[in-house]
Amino acid sequence: MALGFCFGVSLLLSVWPAAECAEIPAGVLDLECRDRYFLIAADLSFTGDEPRFEAVDGTGVYPITNLYAAECGYSISVLPRPGHVDLRASYFSCHVDNKDDKEFTFSFNLIATHDGGEEVTYTLNKTCSPSLPWSSREVTCEVNYMEVSVRSDMTCPSARRKEDWSAALTTAYSSATSDWQVMFQRAGQQLRPMSLSEARAQSYVFDVTDGRIVFRTPYGQPDSFSSMVDGVPAEVIHPTLFSRQSWVVIMVDLVAACSMYEGSYDGSHIVWKTPQILYPLMSGLSALDSQVSLGVGGKLLEQSITEERGYIMKKQESTVQISIPYNAEGGYRKSFLMDSTYHEFYVFNLYLEQILVDEDYIETRLRFFRPLATPLLSHPVHTENRTVVEEGVFTVYLGDFPEDVELVAVKINGQDFINTNRHTISKVAQANDTHGYTLRVPFDDPVVETQLFRDGVLQHKLDINYTLTILPEQEPYYQQASIVALIRDVFPPAFDAVCTEKGISFKLDHRPFDCLWEICIGSNPLTPELAAQRGYFLHNDSTTLLLDVPLFTEGYMYKDIGLKTFSGTFQIHVRDPKTLEVQGSSVKTCPFTATELIVCSTDGRMTVVANVSMAIPSGGIPAKTSLLDRNCGPKEADSSRAMFSFGLNTCGTRVKLGKDHVIYENEIVFNQKFLTVKKPVVARNATEKLILQCVYPLVGLYRLFSVHRFESDTPGAGSITRSSLLVEKPQQPTRRPTIKPTTTPQTTVSTTERPILMLPAMHPPAHYIKVFGFLKDLTDNLSKKRG
Q1: Residue 357: burial class (beta carbons within 10 Å; 0-12, 13-18, 19+)
Q2: What is the C-alpha to C-alpha distance for residues 562 and 559, in angstroms, rounded to an integer?
Q3: Which residue has the higher pLDDT, 397 or 725?
Q4: Which domains does the chain have, with CATH numbers?
Q5: Which of 32, 107, 315, 784 has the highest Cβ tally under 10 A?
Q6: What's the pLDDT score for residue 280?
């Protein structure tokens, strides 16, 4: 810059009293004095989305519009990502109370819009003193204006600049008046001089303090021009301020030049450039004459900190090049939705200071405020499945997000997710002011969809729908993820079983996924209540299930029944609790012995092993006994017992009808013609009458057949009853072991409820008769007989 002041200038400015300090509102985050400017930072949640500022001095209140801010030395930035609005005010801005360039008092009004649209005005005052002494020449390249200030006692330029200075002086002398005027030089041309009032009308501001002369202009003025300096675009404005007093001309040559390089992005770094020496600030300087310091957000940083954060500053040929890594500390990421797709850009508020010294040892301090941003980048949301199958818990990470993104809702498999002590979602802070979210859901949580394939592969699945919002716009964004965990070699549980003298014992060692199946006896789930009802012995803890099933309890099936042994089979099913499909069974068959037993099968057959020694006279043999039909003899017999197996509709079986059951009854009798020694029927050792009964509930009978076939969904409850034949020596009836293998509860039926009805021995061919139809037909037949 060619600037000279051959004669001292002292102009006095009006001053106004400083406003009194008031309490700082809670929503105002900062009132801070920086090296060369005053900062106000307020929270947007406090101010509303459109905060306004007013400058206040002794002459009035001045709303700070965009144009007025650029003219008067204010810069207002709304930063959505931190949620701030910042006001920077130059120490030489309009309406500041300046005392000797050492004490600057600011007074502003902040107009905030609160809930309901109410506007509230807050008065903010602060007095600042520069932390560094003023350089001879200071240039500020703000985001919306250029400002230059010079010390008012500087000497005339050296001989190397006399030619340029003389040309300007000639023009100034020929046109100068006693009033101050300004002349702009543009691309080698000297424009027509204008008065300061004319210049102010064109948004140029000139000011004189106790020790400095200040010039400020918005960017893009008609009198400024663009220039390429070492391949970097720059904006230059060159005013010369002058006044003529008789034969003396007072001149101040002011030049401001700022790099207008917008920055570039190479895929990993934001790059910004400025010339080491901005023409025509100085001439005859080499690169060694400049010193550069780097900072962010209006604060310079130590070199060790910039290196730690990965900032790169290098002098390349005649330019200074700054490289900032993407997402480096000090900047911030801003989220953006475009076509329902998540994008973002990285913003870095660069602060750069250059110090230059010319051949006259005049120091120039140049400061840049430059917001740099990457292009809008497509940034796929990162969903990471961190599940460890052995832990049995889904762990899903969603991130990384800037701080302007919040998770507001989650749906899992169509259900709203709420944090509990079993499944959680938590926010995870990451480096560089980013964050993510970790979702944890156990495999056995009811919200998890579980599917078992026939090849033994168990699949746990989460369909996750995240709802995020971008602040402060409150734009919703939806991210979906489908997470699957596979467990192999998963098959239905199988019990180990052993035979005991009294029944069968089953054992199951629990596996983590056994809960996928329901354990059943028949069609009934195995529960403590069912076990107690049927007489099972059940023990179930976290590791093992033990089930002891005593012989003759409900659920057994019997085969190969003989006088000496028979086989008992007990079956445990495992089934899908949703579809009730049986997917596995544990079956155990064991040999047993019993003195007596009776089996009432579902296909309408009664099998009996009975001790008949007390029901036949002396000299009689069990092999010669029969049922009511004398043609139905035993299948096997020994010295005291006989075994019969016959259909319920054969061998003279009688039928009794109860309210909710049907009783099939027969007797074991002895034909006296087979006695080897003739004795009276009423002999002492022929004192018992053996009555055989099978009881079936009506609800379990689908059809009754009068001849050959019978169908029931449950076995009947059987009994062998002994009644006394001699009045003088009665005996109590003895109930023998009865087999009831299903869910039908044991029913005690009185033999005196209704008269015994004898069915004829011969019947027409078999035909299906429904239970209630059969009852009706039977009642009609009885009525006809009685008639």
Answers
A1: middle
A2: 9
A3: 397
A4: 28-130 (2.60.40), 263-380 (2.60.40), 381-487 (2.60.40), 496-592 (2.60.40), 598-786 (2.60.40.3210)
A5: 107
A6: 54
